[in-house]
Fold:
Amino acid sequence: MSNPSVNVQDQQKIIEFLLLKNQNLLLELGVVQDVEEVSLEVVEKAARDVMASYPQPPRDESEEEHLRELKGLLLEFEDWKLCDIRDRQHMLISRFRSLLFNLGCNDKTCKEVSLPYLQNELGNLESRGHSLRFVSNLKCILRDLKAWRMLCEGRLSEEMDDVTFWRKMRFAPPSPSDEDSDSEGPTLCRDAPHCNDFDENYPLGPGISKKRKKTITEERRMEYKFLFAAEAHCLRCLKYYAAQPDFDVNCESCGKNARGWADSNTTYNIPTDIDAWLRDKNL
Structure:
C-alpha cells in the first residue's frame, strides 16, 4: 500500500534520491563504481578502512558522532541493496514519518511540514538533554528530508550545502600533513576527485546522473581545473590546482571564466574561504 502522505511522483523522487545518496556515499568512501553494480563486500571494506583511520577512542564528540553516522549510512546502504524498489521507498518514508512523530508533527505530511520548524524542534530536544545518539539520528533523517524536498522542487543541484547528504562525511580527521601543507607545497586533500577520468567524464562534479554526463572540451579544461573538477569544497585543493605549471592565476581569460563559472547555476555553493580567495585574486 502506498503512503498517503507521498504521491506517486514524489515516490519516484525517493528512488532518485536514494540512488544519489548511495552513489555519493561511494564517492565519499573512494569507491569508483556504479552504486547498482558494486558489491556489499567492496563498500563494507572501504567503510572499514575509513573507520580505521580514526583514533581510538575518538578524541571528541564530533568524531564519535561522525563514526556513528558512518556506521548508520553503511547499514542503510546494506538495506537498500537487499530490498526491492517498493521496500526502499517504504523504508525512507517510514524514517521521515518517525522524524515527524518524534518532533510533534505527526499531523503533517512529508511535503507540507515546515523544515525550519523541524530544525527548531530538534534544537529544543538537544537543549533538553536528550540522548546524543537519538538526536544525531534525527539530524540525519532531517538532512535526508531536506535533500529529498529540494530534489522534488528541482533545486537540489543548485543549493547543495553542508547539511545535505553528500556532505555527511566532511568531519573526517585531517591527515598528518594537513597542518603544514602550505609549507610543504600545495597538496590535494583526501576528498578531492582528482582522477583524470573523473575530471573528463564528470565536469559538473559528483552526484550528476549518467544522463547529464558530458565530455569536457580542451578550452574549458583549465576553467574546471581552477575549481578542482567542479567541486570547490576546500581552499587547499584550489591552491593545489592553481599551483600547477600550466595554470596562470593572473590570466584574464582563465580568471574571468572561472569567476563566471563559479557564479553560474551549474555549480555547487562556493564556500566562504574559497570565495574570499577568488576576490583576493581579483577574480
